[in-house]
Amino acid sequence: LQTRMQSLQPDPKAQYRSVYGALKKMVLTEGLWRPLRGINVTMLGAGPAHALYFACYEKMKKSLSDIFQPGGNSHLANGIAGSVATLLHDAVMNPAEVVKQRLQMFNSPYSSVLGCVRTVHRTEGFAAFYRSYTTQLTMNVPFQAIHFITYELLQEHLNPPRHYNPGSHIVAGAVAGAVAAAATTPLDVCKTLLNTQENTALSSLNIRGHLSGMANAIGTVYHLGGLPGFFKGVQARVIYQMPSTAIAWSVYEFFKSFLSRRALEKKP
């Protein structure tokens, strides 16, 4: 839904006025499973990407907190750790995101993940999978900084002892995800344009070849949609991020608590 609603010049059959309207229209005209298109490539990339992400975050958060605020919790350390962890996460997820969004576009010419990878590599080269990487980082570094700082701040109020508390992890994760998602929507619209290379939009501006670079993407979005164009799909993005970050944090905190407890039990 987010990918479709961020389209700058969609096909008349794929114009949506609301998140619910988009979902209803998609299911009725394209089938029940169409909204789940691209889930397989997302799952393939998410495992290794999040493993690197949280491992880097925990290590850097501890090391930097000891420097900035020994024995305490430093929001600056949390923000820096989240930003650096994003570099590793996005290096893995960016190609998966390109394939996912091309599969999700209306009337996508790609029938499978492998077919999409082969076609993009053959026609646009390997660089196509990282065309939006700088924009992704420009978006995700502030996103993760806001996300982690908000999460850790809420944990200080909801769960001061920092014990395993599923309710606090879910609430803090959802709110942190919503705040970060809303703040970085303009960059997400630019990233979607770079990933999908939306033909109708580029043709209307007489852009030949492939659009590359964040500056070009920002200029294109502004020419086609003005300032409101940068917030296309903001509702879908917030609705997506809230459960996503809530689930991610609650699962992560569960395994962190479970594995720590087991490690302590094994100690003589």
UniProtKB/TrEMBL annotation:
GO terms for biological process: iron import into the mitochondrion. It catalyses: Fe(2+)(in) = Fe(2+)(out). It is a multi-pass membrane protein. Keywords: Ion transport, Iron, Iron transport, Membrane, Mitochondrion, Transmembrane, Transmembrane helix, Transport. One of its GO terms (cellular component) is mitochondrial membrane. It is found in: Mitochondrion membrane. Its main location: mitochondrion. It comes from the Eukaryota. The keyword Transferase does not apply. Belongs to the mitochondrial carrier (TC 2.A.29) family. This is Mitoferrin-1. It comes from Donacobius atricapilla. The lineage of its organism: Eukaryota, Metazoa, Chordata, Craniata, Vertebrata.
